[in-house]
Amino acid sequence: MRQAGAIAELIEALRCLPGVGPKTAQRMTLHLLQRDRDAAGRLSEALRQALEKVGLCAQCRTLTEHSLCEYCASPGRDRSLLCIVESPAEVLAISRSTGYKGLFFVLNGRLSPLDGIGPEELGLDVLEQRLKDDGVAELILATNTTVEGEATAHYLSDMARRHGIRTTRIAHGIPFGGELEYVDGATLSHAFDGRKDF
Ligand SMILES: [Zn+2]
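Above: inputs. Below: predicted complex with zinc ion.
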């Protein structure tokens, strides 16, 4: 079936979601328009509200509705520990699976010069300021074990060294190229507890 106008526009828009190809996007579109228009309205409103309210935490760059996220705003967290992750999903995974009580910093990506992603795009100027001022004693690298994740880890450990801060890397049982977000809780917890100097 060939679509045009608003239908085609919606199909194309849904393809921005991970794992959604043209056929799935078409199925979703027809479902929303034909069978569940109430849900379509809720989806549209929820998306509008979320886009309006949710931004990045000023300190750690995770997603939040406030200027500081719940971790950064909490007085009970150990401010000498700073765990670096690539995405907000990994903040949730680590919080859920490990007993970690320190703070986070979210890169929202990884260094990839060929794609135009350098230190500035990852907020590393903000991070460096924190390493300078904030009493961080250990930088825990939880970047993924992809090539870019490794390059990012090396860049960060050099930065930490310049400020005399110990760097550790979580390791055990995380497969090479593995995305932390998809690792099961027990493996992640083990990897976290078994972190080694980097
Ligand atoms: Zn935060």
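The first strand starts at residue 55 and ends at 56.
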